[in-house]
UniProtKB/TrEMBL annotation:
Domain SET residues, every copy: 359-514
Entry GO CC: chromosome; nucleus
Organism: Ambrosia artemisiifolia
Listed GO MF terms: double-stranded DNA binding; histone methyltransferase activity; zinc ion binding
Protein name: Uncharacterized protein
Residue ranges with Low complexity bias: 42-68
Domain of life: Eukaryota
InterPro entries with a match to the protein in the record: H3K9_HMTase_SUVAR3-9, Post-SET_dom, Pre-SET_dom, PUA-like_sf, SET_dom, SET_dom_sf, SRA-YDG_sf
Residue span, Post-SET domain: 528-544
Amino acid sequence: MENEEGALDVSVTKKFGQKRCSPRLRQQIKRPYYGPPCRSKTQTTDLLSSNNTLSPSPSSSSNDNNNKDIISQQQQQTLLFDFSYVPHTRSHKARVKKTLSIFNNYFLHFSNSNNNNQHPLSQEEEEEEHNRPDFKAVSKMIECNQLLFPTKRFGHLPGIDVGYQLYSRAEMVALGLHTHWHSPIDYMPPSYNITVSECWPAEGVSAGFVVYKYLLKRLEGQPKLTSNQVQCSNGRSRVPAKAPRLVCLDISEGQEDVHIPAVNTVDDATITGFTYTKYNQILSNLKVPRNANGCDCKGGYCKNPKTCSCARLNGVDFPYVRSNGGRLIEAKDVVFECGPNCGCGPGCINRISQQGIKYQLEVFRTRDRGWAVKTKDFIPSGAPVCEYIGELRRTNELDNVAENDYIFEIDCWQTIKEIGGRERRLGDVSLGRRDEKEIENSMPMPISMPMPEPEFCIDAGRIGNVARFINHSCEPNLFVQCVLSSHHDLRLARILLFASDDIAPMEELTYDYGYALDSVVDKNGKVRMVPCHCGTSECRKRLY
Ligand SMILES: C[S@@+](CC[C@H](N)C(=O)[O-])C[C@H]1O[C@@H](n2cnc3c(N)ncnc32)[C@H](O)[C@@H]1O
Protein backbone atom coordinates (compact mmCIF):
# COMPACT_ATOMS: atom_id res chain seq x y z
CA MET A 1 0.00 0.00 0.00
CA GLU A 2 2.98 2.26 0.37
CA ASN A 3 5.42 2.83 -2.46
CA GLU A 4 9.18 3.19 -2.27
CA GLU A 5 8.93 6.85 -1.36
CA GLY A 6 6.28 6.12 1.20
CA ALA A 7 3.44 7.67 -0.81
CA LEU A 8 0.14 6.09 0.00
CA ASP A 9 -2.23 5.57 -2.89
CA VAL A 10 -5.78 6.08 -1.72
CA SER A 11 -6.96 3.63 -4.34
CA VAL A 12 -5.76 0.78 -2.10
CA THR A 13 -9.33 -0.27 -1.54
CA LYS A 14 -9.79 -0.91 -5.23
CA LYS A 15 -10.14 -4.48 -6.39
CA PHE A 16 -6.83 -6.05 -7.27
CA GLY A 17 -7.70 -7.83 -10.47
CA GLN A 18 -10.09 -10.20 -8.71
CA LYS A 19 -12.80 -9.84 -6.13
CA ARG A 20 -11.07 -10.81 -2.92
CA CYS A 21 -7.56 -11.18 -1.66
CA SER A 22 -5.43 -11.64 1.35
CA PRO A 23 -2.08 -10.45 2.53
CA ARG A 24 0.96 -12.57 2.13
CA LEU A 25 1.03 -14.40 5.37
CA ARG A 26 2.96 -17.02 7.19
CA GLN A 27 0.67 -19.02 9.38
CA GLN A 28 1.08 -20.72 12.68
CA ILE A 29 -1.58 -23.33 12.10
CA LYS A 30 -0.32 -26.34 10.16
CA ARG A 31 -3.65 -27.61 8.95
CA PRO A 32 -6.39 -25.83 7.06
CA TYR A 33 -8.56 -23.99 9.54
CA TYR A 34 -12.28 -23.97 8.97
CA GLY A 35 -13.93 -23.59 12.35
CA PRO A 36 -13.83 -20.06 13.68
CA PRO A 37 -14.28 -19.40 17.34
CA CYS A 38 -17.40 -17.30 17.80
CA ARG A 39 -17.12 -15.51 21.09
CA SER A 40 -19.44 -13.35 23.07
CA LYS A 41 -19.17 -9.60 22.93
CA THR A 42 -17.78 -9.52 26.43
CA GLN A 43 -14.72 -11.60 25.65
CA THR A 44 -11.34 -10.10 24.99
CA THR A 45 -9.93 -9.90 21.49
CA ASP A 46 -7.26 -12.53 22.01
CA LEU A 47 -8.38 -14.85 19.25
CA LEU A 48 -5.44 -17.17 19.63
CA SER A 49 -6.23 -18.12 23.16
CA SER A 50 -9.72 -19.31 22.24
CA ASN A 51 -10.26 -23.04 21.84
CA ASN A 52 -13.86 -22.82 20.72
CA THR A 53 -14.55 -24.17 17.28
CA LEU A 54 -18.10 -23.02 16.85
CA SER A 55 -19.08 -22.96 13.22
CA PRO A 56 -20.82 -19.82 12.13
CA SER A 57 -24.54 -20.10 11.91
CA PRO A 58 -25.42 -18.57 8.55
CA SER A 59 -28.94 -17.82 9.63
CA SER A 60 -28.21 -16.08 12.88
CA SER A 61 -28.57 -12.33 12.73
CA SER A 62 -27.34 -12.26 9.16
CA ASN A 63 -30.06 -9.85 8.22
CA ASP A 64 -30.01 -7.92 11.43
CA ASN A 65 -31.29 -4.48 10.80
CA ASN A 66 -28.92 -3.16 13.37
CA ASN A 67 -25.83 -4.40 11.52
CA LYS A 68 -25.27 -0.98 10.07
CA ASP A 69 -25.68 0.54 13.50
CA ILE A 70 -23.07 -1.80 14.93
CA ILE A 71 -20.65 -0.72 12.25
CA SER A 72 -21.34 2.95 12.63
CA GLN A 73 -20.97 2.69 16.41
CA GLN A 74 -17.62 1.17 15.79
CA GLN A 75 -16.64 3.93 13.44
CA GLN A 76 -17.28 6.43 16.17
CA GLN A 77 -14.99 4.79 18.67
CA THR A 78 -12.16 6.80 20.03
CA LEU A 79 -8.97 6.71 18.00
CA LEU A 80 -5.99 4.94 19.44
CA PHE A 81 -2.53 6.32 18.86
CA ASP A 82 0.44 4.03 18.52
CA PHE A 83 3.51 5.57 16.98
CA SER A 84 5.94 2.95 18.19
CA TYR A 85 6.93 0.35 15.63
CA VAL A 86 6.71 -3.16 17.06
CA PRO A 87 8.53 -5.80 14.97
CA HIS A 88 6.06 -8.45 13.83
CA THR A 89 6.16 -11.63 15.83
CA ARG A 90 4.78 -15.02 14.84
CA SER A 91 1.88 -14.51 17.17
CA HIS A 92 0.97 -11.16 15.55
CA LYS A 93 1.04 -12.75 12.13
CA ALA A 94 -0.93 -15.75 13.34
CA ARG A 95 -3.65 -13.42 14.64
CA VAL A 96 -3.91 -11.76 11.24
CA LYS A 97 -4.00 -15.16 9.62
CA LYS A 98 -6.68 -16.44 11.95
CA THR A 99 -8.84 -13.33 11.51
CA LEU A 100 -8.77 -13.75 7.73
CA SER A 101 -9.60 -17.46 8.10
CA ILE A 102 -12.61 -16.56 10.21
CA PHE A 103 -13.70 -13.97 7.65
CA ASN A 104 -13.35 -16.48 4.79
CA ASN A 105 -15.23 -19.12 6.71
CA TYR A 106 -18.20 -16.82 7.38
CA PHE A 107 -18.07 -15.53 3.82
CA LEU A 108 -18.34 -19.05 2.36
CA HIS A 109 -21.08 -20.10 4.77
CA PHE A 110 -23.14 -16.99 4.08
CA SER A 111 -22.64 -17.41 0.33
CA ASN A 112 -23.93 -20.96 0.75
CA SER A 113 -26.94 -19.92 2.79
CA ASN A 114 -27.81 -17.32 0.13
CA ASN A 115 -27.64 -20.10 -2.50
CA ASN A 116 -29.80 -22.41 -0.44
CA ASN A 117 -32.52 -19.83 0.23
CA GLN A 118 -35.91 -21.37 -0.43
CA HIS A 119 -36.82 -18.23 -2.35
CA PRO A 120 -33.75 -17.30 -4.37
CA LEU A 121 -32.86 -13.63 -4.13
CA SER A 122 -33.59 -11.42 -7.11
CA GLN A 123 -30.64 -9.67 -8.73
CA GLU A 124 -31.62 -6.42 -6.97
CA GLU A 125 -31.92 -8.14 -3.62
CA GLU A 126 -28.55 -9.79 -4.11
CA GLU A 127 -26.97 -6.40 -4.62
CA GLU A 128 -28.49 -4.97 -1.46
CA GLU A 129 -25.74 -4.51 1.07
CA HIS A 130 -27.36 -6.46 3.91
CA ASN A 131 -27.70 -9.53 1.65
CA ARG A 132 -24.08 -9.56 0.57
CA PRO A 133 -22.08 -12.43 2.12
CA ASP A 134 -19.06 -10.18 2.74
CA PHE A 135 -21.22 -7.68 4.61
CA LYS A 136 -22.83 -10.48 6.62
CA ALA A 137 -19.40 -11.95 7.40
CA VAL A 138 -18.07 -8.65 8.72
CA SER A 139 -21.28 -8.01 10.68
CA LYS A 140 -21.02 -11.45 12.27
CA MET A 141 -17.41 -10.79 13.19
CA ILE A 142 -18.35 -7.49 14.80
CA GLU A 143 -21.15 -9.22 16.69
CA CYS A 144 -18.79 -11.96 17.92
CA ASN A 145 -16.03 -9.49 18.73
CA GLN A 146 -13.72 -11.09 16.18
CA LEU A 147 -12.29 -8.03 14.42
CA LEU A 148 -8.53 -8.01 14.84
CA PHE A 149 -8.30 -4.34 15.78
CA PRO A 150 -11.85 -3.28 16.63
CA THR A 151 -10.88 0.23 17.63
CA LYS A 152 -9.80 2.72 15.03
CA ARG A 153 -6.07 3.04 15.37
CA PHE A 154 -3.56 5.50 14.17
CA GLY A 155 -0.06 4.21 13.59
CA HIS A 156 1.29 0.72 13.60
CA LEU A 157 -0.91 -2.40 13.45
CA PRO A 158 1.19 -5.34 14.69
CA GLY A 159 1.15 -8.26 12.26
CA ILE A 160 0.18 -6.16 9.25
CA ASP A 161 3.22 -5.29 7.23
CA VAL A 162 3.75 -2.73 4.56
CA GLY A 163 3.37 -4.65 1.30
CA TYR A 164 0.25 -6.58 2.26
CA GLN A 165 -2.07 -6.96 -0.66
CA LEU A 166 -5.68 -6.40 0.25
CA TYR A 167 -8.36 -6.69 -2.36
CA SER A 168 -11.65 -6.28 -0.57
CA ARG A 169 -12.93 -3.65 1.76
CA ALA A 170 -14.59 -6.34 3.88
CA GLU A 171 -11.24 -7.97 4.67
CA MET A 172 -9.81 -4.58 5.57
CA VAL A 173 -12.71 -3.98 7.94
CA ALA A 174 -12.20 -7.47 9.44
CA LEU A 175 -8.59 -6.61 10.23
CA GLY A 176 -9.35 -3.10 11.43
CA LEU A 177 -7.45 -1.36 8.65
CA HIS A 178 -10.58 0.30 7.37
CA THR A 179 -13.55 1.29 9.49
CA HIS A 180 -15.95 2.87 6.99
CA TRP A 181 -17.82 -0.11 5.67
CA HIS A 182 -20.11 1.94 3.45
CA SER A 183 -17.46 4.16 2.01
CA PRO A 184 -14.34 3.08 0.11
CA ILE A 185 -12.33 5.91 1.66
CA ASP A 186 -11.50 5.97 5.32
CA TYR A 187 -10.13 9.11 6.91
CA MET A 188 -8.86 10.76 10.04
CA PRO A 189 -9.75 14.27 11.16
CA PRO A 190 -7.18 16.93 10.06
CA SER A 191 -5.79 17.16 13.58
CA TYR A 192 -4.24 13.73 13.08
CA ASN A 193 -2.11 14.82 10.14
CA ILE A 194 1.22 14.53 11.93
CA THR A 195 2.33 11.50 9.96
CA VAL A 196 1.56 13.00 6.54
CA SER A 197 4.47 14.92 4.96
CA GLU A 198 2.80 15.84 1.73
CA CYS A 199 -0.41 15.28 -0.17
CA TRP A 200 -1.16 15.91 -3.85
CA PRO A 201 -3.75 15.02 -6.50
CA ALA A 202 -2.36 12.38 -8.85
CA GLU A 203 -2.15 13.08 -12.54
CA GLY A 204 -5.34 12.47 -14.43
CA VAL A 205 -8.84 12.04 -13.28
CA SER A 206 -10.34 8.57 -13.18
CA ALA A 207 -14.09 8.16 -13.77
CA GLY A 208 -14.76 11.61 -12.39
CA PHE A 209 -12.64 11.14 -9.25
CA VAL A 210 -9.35 12.77 -8.45
CA VAL A 211 -6.92 10.29 -6.88
CA TYR A 212 -4.89 11.75 -4.03
CA LYS A 213 -1.51 10.48 -2.97
CA TYR A 214 0.04 10.91 0.45
CA LEU A 215 3.68 10.92 1.40
CA LEU A 216 3.83 9.45 4.90
CA LYS A 217 6.52 9.69 7.51
CA ARG A 218 8.14 6.42 8.48
CA LEU A 219 7.59 5.28 12.08
CA GLU A 220 10.65 5.22 14.25
CA GLY A 221 12.28 1.80 13.94
CA GLN A 222 10.13 0.78 10.98
CA PRO A 223 12.26 -1.25 8.56
CA LYS A 224 12.89 -0.07 5.00
CA LEU A 225 10.82 -1.56 2.23
CA THR A 226 12.33 -4.36 0.22
CA SER A 227 11.70 -4.58 -3.49
CA ASN A 228 9.46 -7.66 -3.29
CA GLN A 229 7.09 -5.85 -0.92
CA VAL A 230 6.38 -3.11 -3.43
CA GLN A 231 3.17 -3.53 -5.35
CA CYS A 232 1.13 -1.06 -7.33
CA SER A 233 -2.60 -0.92 -6.86
CA ASN A 234 -3.01 -2.28 -10.40
CA GLY A 235 -1.22 -5.48 -9.43
CA ARG A 236 2.07 -4.97 -11.27
CA SER A 237 5.29 -4.95 -9.36
CA ARG A 238 6.97 -1.57 -9.43
CA VAL A 239 10.42 -3.08 -9.29
CA PRO A 240 11.06 -5.06 -12.48
CA ALA A 241 12.05 -8.66 -11.80
CA LYS A 242 15.19 -10.05 -13.44
CA ALA A 243 14.11 -11.56 -16.74
CA PRO A 244 13.65 -15.27 -16.13
CA ARG A 245 14.87 -17.85 -18.64
CA LEU A 246 11.85 -19.47 -20.22
CA VAL A 247 12.62 -23.18 -20.48
CA CYS A 248 9.19 -24.24 -21.68
CA LEU A 249 6.28 -22.20 -23.01
CA ASP A 250 3.69 -24.68 -21.84
CA ILE A 251 4.55 -27.90 -20.02
CA SER A 252 1.01 -29.19 -20.71
CA GLU A 253 1.62 -28.88 -24.48
CA GLY A 254 -1.81 -27.37 -24.97
CA GLN A 255 -3.70 -29.97 -22.93
CA GLU A 256 -4.75 -27.57 -20.19
CA ASP A 257 -7.02 -24.57 -20.84
CA VAL A 258 -4.23 -22.30 -19.58
CA HIS A 259 -0.56 -22.36 -20.59
CA ILE A 260 1.81 -23.47 -17.83
CA PRO A 261 5.25 -22.01 -18.57
CA ALA A 262 8.45 -23.16 -16.85
CA VAL A 263 11.17 -20.65 -15.99
CA ASN A 264 14.64 -20.98 -14.54
CA THR A 265 16.79 -18.20 -13.09
CA VAL A 266 18.91 -20.56 -11.03
CA ASP A 267 20.79 -23.10 -13.16
CA ASP A 268 20.78 -24.84 -16.54
CA ALA A 269 18.17 -27.48 -15.74
CA THR A 270 15.27 -27.98 -18.11
CA ILE A 271 12.05 -29.92 -17.71
CA THR A 272 12.71 -33.48 -18.84
CA GLY A 273 11.84 -37.08 -18.04
CA PHE A 274 8.09 -37.02 -17.86
CA THR A 275 5.08 -36.87 -20.14
CA TYR A 276 2.27 -34.46 -19.37
CA THR A 277 -1.24 -35.84 -19.03
CA LYS A 278 -4.48 -34.26 -17.87
CA TYR A 279 -6.15 -37.52 -16.86
CA ASN A 280 -5.11 -40.39 -14.60
CA GLN A 281 -3.76 -43.35 -16.56
CA ILE A 282 -5.10 -46.68 -15.41
CA LEU A 283 -2.78 -49.66 -15.85
CA SER A 284 -4.27 -52.73 -17.53
CA ASN A 285 -3.99 -54.92 -14.39
CA LEU A 286 -6.22 -52.56 -12.44
CA LYS A 287 -9.99 -52.91 -12.44
CA VAL A 288 -11.76 -49.59 -12.50
CA PRO A 289 -14.83 -49.52 -10.21
CA ARG A 290 -18.16 -49.29 -11.98
CA ASN A 291 -19.78 -45.88 -12.20
CA ALA A 292 -21.89 -45.07 -9.16
CA ASN A 293 -25.60 -44.44 -9.42
CA GLY A 294 -26.28 -40.77 -9.96
CA CYS A 295 -28.80 -38.24 -8.74
CA ASP A 296 -32.13 -37.64 -10.51
CA CYS A 297 -31.83 -33.85 -10.65
CA LYS A 298 -33.11 -32.34 -13.88
CA GLY A 299 -32.47 -29.18 -15.87
CA GLY A 300 -28.67 -29.19 -15.96
CA TYR A 301 -28.10 -28.16 -12.32
CA CYS A 302 -28.62 -29.73 -8.91
CA LYS A 303 -30.55 -27.20 -6.85
CA ASN A 304 -32.18 -28.83 -3.88
CA PRO A 305 -29.78 -30.54 -1.45
CA LYS A 306 -32.69 -32.40 0.15
CA THR A 307 -33.69 -34.18 -3.05
CA CYS A 308 -30.23 -34.52 -4.69
CA SER A 309 -28.82 -37.93 -3.68
CA CYS A 310 -25.22 -36.67 -4.17
CA ALA A 311 -25.82 -33.71 -1.84
CA ARG A 312 -27.27 -36.13 0.72
CA LEU A 313 -23.96 -38.02 0.72
CA ASN A 314 -22.29 -34.73 1.64
CA GLY A 315 -24.53 -34.26 4.69
CA VAL A 316 -27.61 -32.88 2.84
CA ASP A 317 -25.71 -29.92 1.50
CA PHE A 318 -23.70 -28.94 -1.53
CA PRO A 319 -20.02 -28.79 -0.61
CA TYR A 320 -19.35 -25.80 -2.86
CA VAL A 321 -20.53 -22.23 -3.34
CA ARG A 322 -20.46 -20.54 -6.71
CA SER A 323 -18.46 -17.47 -5.70
CA ASN A 324 -15.22 -16.94 -7.71
CA GLY A 325 -16.07 -19.83 -10.03
CA GLY A 326 -16.66 -22.32 -7.20
CA ARG A 327 -15.15 -22.74 -3.75
CA LEU A 328 -15.27 -25.55 -1.24
CA ILE A 329 -17.10 -24.32 1.86
CA GLU A 330 -15.10 -26.44 4.26
CA ALA A 331 -12.61 -29.29 4.09
CA LYS A 332 -14.22 -32.72 4.36
CA ASP A 333 -12.95 -36.26 4.72
CA VAL A 334 -14.36 -36.89 1.26
CA VAL A 335 -16.47 -34.86 -1.16
CA PHE A 336 -19.07 -36.67 -3.26
CA GLU A 337 -19.46 -34.88 -6.57
CA CYS A 338 -22.01 -35.55 -9.30
CA GLY A 339 -20.82 -37.97 -11.95
CA PRO A 340 -21.58 -39.67 -15.26
CA ASN A 341 -24.89 -41.19 -14.13
CA CYS A 342 -26.28 -37.97 -12.65
CA GLY A 343 -29.17 -36.10 -14.24
CA CYS A 344 -27.37 -32.72 -14.07
CA GLY A 345 -24.89 -31.28 -16.55
CA PRO A 346 -21.25 -30.07 -16.53
CA GLY A 347 -22.22 -26.65 -15.11
CA CYS A 348 -23.67 -28.20 -11.93
CA ILE A 349 -22.40 -26.66 -8.67
CA ASN A 350 -21.45 -30.15 -7.49
CA ARG A 351 -18.81 -30.70 -10.18
CA ILE A 352 -16.41 -27.90 -9.33
CA SER A 353 -13.31 -30.11 -9.27
CA GLN A 354 -14.04 -31.44 -12.75
CA GLN A 355 -13.40 -28.15 -14.53
CA GLY A 356 -9.64 -28.41 -14.94
CA ILE A 357 -6.99 -25.84 -14.11
CA LYS A 358 -8.22 -22.26 -14.39
CA TYR A 359 -5.51 -20.25 -12.65
CA GLN A 360 -2.32 -19.08 -14.36
CA LEU A 361 0.38 -21.28 -12.87
CA GLU A 362 4.12 -21.22 -13.48
CA VAL A 363 6.76 -23.85 -12.81
CA PHE A 364 10.01 -22.29 -11.57
CA ARG A 365 13.40 -23.50 -10.40
CA THR A 366 14.40 -23.10 -6.74
CA ARG A 367 17.92 -23.19 -5.29
CA ASP A 368 17.34 -26.08 -2.87
CA ARG A 369 14.05 -27.82 -3.72
CA GLY A 370 14.29 -28.48 -7.46
CA TRP A 371 11.25 -27.28 -9.41
CA ALA A 372 8.31 -25.60 -7.73
CA VAL A 373 4.97 -24.06 -8.74
CA LYS A 374 3.68 -20.54 -8.19
CA THR A 375 0.41 -18.86 -9.08
CA LYS A 376 0.33 -15.70 -11.15
CA ASP A 377 -3.32 -15.16 -10.22
CA PHE A 378 -4.96 -14.45 -6.93
CA ILE A 379 -6.57 -17.70 -5.68
CA PRO A 380 -9.34 -17.38 -3.10
CA SER A 381 -9.43 -19.80 -0.17
CA GLY A 382 -11.47 -22.91 -0.92
CA ALA A 383 -10.83 -22.73 -4.68
CA PRO A 384 -9.72 -25.92 -6.44
CA VAL A 385 -6.20 -25.47 -7.82
CA CYS A 386 -5.39 -28.78 -9.49
CA GLU A 387 -5.72 -32.54 -9.24
CA TYR A 388 -2.74 -34.81 -8.54
CA ILE A 389 -2.54 -36.79 -11.78
CA GLY A 390 -0.39 -39.75 -12.77
CA GLU A 391 -0.54 -43.51 -13.25
CA LEU A 392 -2.90 -45.35 -10.91
CA ARG A 393 -0.95 -48.29 -9.46
CA ARG A 394 -1.09 -50.88 -6.74
CA THR A 395 1.32 -49.83 -3.99
CA ASN A 396 2.67 -53.38 -3.60
CA GLU A 397 3.75 -53.40 -7.25
CA LEU A 398 5.95 -50.32 -7.03
CA ASP A 399 9.67 -50.72 -7.68
CA ASN A 400 12.24 -48.42 -6.17
CA VAL A 401 9.68 -46.49 -4.17
CA ALA A 402 12.41 -44.78 -2.21
CA GLU A 403 13.84 -43.37 -5.46
CA ASN A 404 10.53 -42.13 -6.77
CA ASP A 405 9.71 -38.64 -5.46
CA TYR A 406 6.34 -38.46 -7.21
CA ILE A 407 4.16 -41.09 -5.52
CA PHE A 408 0.93 -40.03 -3.84
CA GLU A 409 -0.60 -42.82 -1.77
CA ILE A 410 -4.40 -42.70 -1.88
CA ASP A 411 -4.84 -42.92 1.85
CA CYS A 412 -8.28 -41.36 2.30
CA TRP A 413 -9.71 -44.43 4.01
CA GLN A 414 -6.73 -44.73 6.36
CA THR A 415 -6.83 -41.04 7.30
CA ILE A 416 -10.59 -41.14 7.95
CA LYS A 417 -10.10 -44.16 10.19
CA GLU A 418 -6.79 -42.84 11.58
CA ILE A 419 -5.18 -46.17 10.70
CA GLY A 420 -1.42 -46.70 10.66
CA GLY A 421 -0.52 -43.48 12.45
CA ARG A 422 -2.29 -41.37 9.85
CA GLU A 423 -3.91 -38.48 11.62
CA ARG A 424 -6.98 -36.95 10.06
CA ARG A 425 -5.44 -34.82 7.37
CA LEU A 426 -7.92 -32.03 7.72
CA GLY A 427 -7.23 -31.17 11.32
CA ASP A 428 -9.98 -28.86 12.44
CA VAL A 429 -12.64 -30.33 10.21
CA SER A 430 -15.57 -31.54 12.21
CA LEU A 431 -17.33 -34.49 10.70
CA GLY A 432 -20.50 -35.93 12.23
CA ARG A 433 -20.73 -39.68 12.78
CA ARG A 434 -23.62 -39.72 10.36
CA ASP A 435 -21.39 -38.54 7.53
CA GLU A 436 -18.88 -41.27 8.28
CA LYS A 437 -21.65 -43.87 8.16
CA GLU A 438 -22.83 -42.42 4.83
CA ILE A 439 -19.31 -42.76 3.45
CA GLU A 440 -19.05 -46.36 4.58
CA ASN A 441 -22.45 -47.24 3.20
CA SER A 442 -21.62 -45.83 -0.19
CA MET A 443 -18.39 -47.81 -0.51
CA PRO A 444 -18.51 -50.79 -2.83
CA MET A 445 -16.59 -53.04 -0.38
CA PRO A 446 -17.42 -54.38 3.07
CA ILE A 447 -16.54 -51.87 5.77
CA SER A 448 -14.89 -54.51 7.91
CA MET A 449 -12.25 -54.99 5.21
CA PRO A 450 -8.88 -54.40 6.89
CA MET A 451 -6.84 -51.84 4.98
CA PRO A 452 -3.83 -50.95 7.11
CA GLU A 453 -1.91 -49.52 4.15
CA PRO A 454 -3.20 -47.74 1.06
CA GLU A 455 -3.74 -50.28 -1.71
CA PHE A 456 -3.37 -47.79 -4.52
CA CYS A 457 -1.29 -44.78 -5.34
CA ILE A 458 -0.88 -42.17 -8.04
CA ASP A 459 2.59 -42.38 -9.54
CA ALA A 460 3.53 -39.17 -11.35
CA GLY A 461 7.14 -40.24 -11.91
CA ARG A 462 6.84 -40.87 -15.67
CA ILE A 463 3.45 -39.41 -16.46
CA GLY A 464 1.72 -36.60 -14.59
CA ASN A 465 0.47 -33.04 -14.54
CA VAL A 466 1.64 -29.80 -12.93
CA ALA A 467 0.82 -31.10 -9.41
CA ARG A 468 3.96 -33.28 -9.53
CA PHE A 469 6.04 -30.09 -9.25
CA ILE A 470 4.32 -28.75 -6.14
CA ASN A 471 6.64 -28.85 -3.15
CA HIS A 472 6.03 -29.61 0.51
CA SER A 473 5.71 -26.95 3.19
CA CYS A 474 5.15 -27.28 6.91
CA GLU A 475 2.95 -24.16 6.61
CA PRO A 476 1.21 -24.81 3.31
CA ASN A 477 -1.35 -22.78 1.39
CA LEU A 478 -3.04 -25.81 -0.21
CA PHE A 479 -4.71 -28.82 1.34
CA VAL A 480 -5.47 -32.28 0.04
CA GLN A 481 -9.11 -33.12 -0.51
CA CYS A 482 -10.33 -36.59 -1.53
CA VAL A 483 -13.08 -36.37 -4.12
CA LEU A 484 -15.31 -39.12 -5.53
CA SER A 485 -17.12 -38.28 -8.73
CA SER A 486 -17.56 -41.21 -11.13
CA HIS A 487 -17.39 -44.11 -8.63
CA HIS A 488 -17.58 -44.39 -4.84
CA ASP A 489 -14.49 -46.45 -4.09
CA LEU A 490 -12.43 -44.51 -1.55
CA ARG A 491 -9.37 -46.63 -2.30
CA LEU A 492 -9.27 -44.96 -5.72
CA ALA A 493 -10.46 -41.49 -4.73
CA ARG A 494 -9.31 -38.51 -6.78
CA ILE A 495 -6.77 -36.30 -5.04
CA LEU A 496 -7.51 -32.59 -5.34
CA LEU A 497 -5.49 -29.67 -4.04
CA PHE A 498 -7.56 -26.74 -2.77
CA ALA A 499 -6.43 -23.33 -1.48
CA SER A 500 -6.47 -23.28 2.32
CA ASP A 501 -5.91 -19.51 2.38
CA ASP A 502 -6.34 -16.65 0.02
CA ILE A 503 -3.18 -16.93 -2.08
CA ALA A 504 -1.61 -13.78 -3.47
CA PRO A 505 -0.22 -13.60 -7.02
CA MET A 506 3.39 -14.84 -7.31
CA GLU A 507 3.13 -16.91 -4.14
CA GLU A 508 4.54 -20.45 -4.28
CA LEU A 509 1.94 -23.21 -3.98
CA THR A 510 2.66 -25.88 -1.37
CA TYR A 511 0.89 -28.61 0.52
CA ASP A 512 1.88 -30.70 3.51
CA TYR A 513 3.15 -34.05 2.24
CA GLY A 514 2.23 -35.41 5.67
CA TYR A 515 4.98 -38.04 5.89
CA ALA A 516 5.45 -39.69 9.27
CA LEU A 517 9.12 -39.36 10.23
CA ASP A 518 11.21 -42.49 9.55
CA SER A 519 8.44 -43.92 7.37
CA VAL A 520 10.50 -44.10 4.17
CA VAL A 521 13.17 -46.78 3.79
CA ASP A 522 15.57 -47.50 0.95
CA LYS A 523 15.88 -50.86 -0.82
CA ASN A 524 18.18 -52.12 1.94
CA GLY A 525 15.59 -51.28 4.57
CA LYS A 526 17.59 -48.28 5.82
CA VAL A 527 15.52 -45.27 6.93
CA ARG A 528 15.81 -42.39 4.47
CA MET A 529 16.02 -38.89 5.86
CA VAL A 530 15.42 -35.85 3.69
CA PRO A 531 15.82 -32.36 5.19
CA CYS A 532 12.95 -29.95 4.65
CA HIS A 533 13.81 -26.59 3.09
CA CYS A 534 10.37 -25.02 3.25
CA GLY A 535 11.88 -22.16 5.24
CA THR A 536 8.79 -21.48 7.34
CA SER A 537 8.84 -20.71 11.02
CA GLU A 538 6.91 -23.92 11.69
CA CYS A 539 9.34 -26.11 9.74
CA ARG A 540 9.60 -29.65 11.13
CA LYS A 541 13.13 -29.81 9.62
CA ARG A 542 12.59 -33.11 7.84
CA LEU A 543 10.42 -34.06 4.89
CA TYR A 544 10.55 -37.66 6.15
C1 LIG B 1 6.66 -34.19 -5.87
S1 LIG B 1 8.31 -33.68 -5.99
C2 LIG B 1 8.14 -31.93 -6.05
C3 LIG B 1 8.84 -31.35 -7.26
C4 LIG B 1 10.30 -31.43 -7.21
N1 LIG B 1 10.87 -30.32 -6.45
C5 LIG B 1 10.92 -31.46 -8.61
O1 LIG B 1 11.93 -30.80 -8.83
O2 LIG B 1 10.41 -32.16 -9.46
C6 LIG B 1 8.87 -34.01 -4.36
C7 LIG B 1 10.34 -33.81 -4.15
O3 LIG B 1 10.68 -32.43 -4.18
C8 LIG B 1 11.64 -32.13 -3.17
N2 LIG B 1 11.00 -31.29 -2.15
C9 LIG B 1 9.72 -30.93 -2.09
N3 LIG B 1 9.48 -30.13 -1.06
C10 LIG B 1 10.64 -30.00 -0.40
C11 LIG B 1 11.03 -29.32 0.79
N4 LIG B 1 10.19 -28.59 1.50
N5 LIG B 1 12.31 -29.42 1.17
C12 LIG B 1 13.20 -30.14 0.47
N6 LIG B 1 12.89 -30.80 -0.67
C13 LIG B 1 11.63 -30.74 -1.09
C14 LIG B 1 12.02 -33.46 -2.55
O4 LIG B 1 13.10 -33.97 -3.27
C15 LIG B 1 10.79 -34.30 -2.81
O5 LIG B 1 11.06 -35.67 -2.77
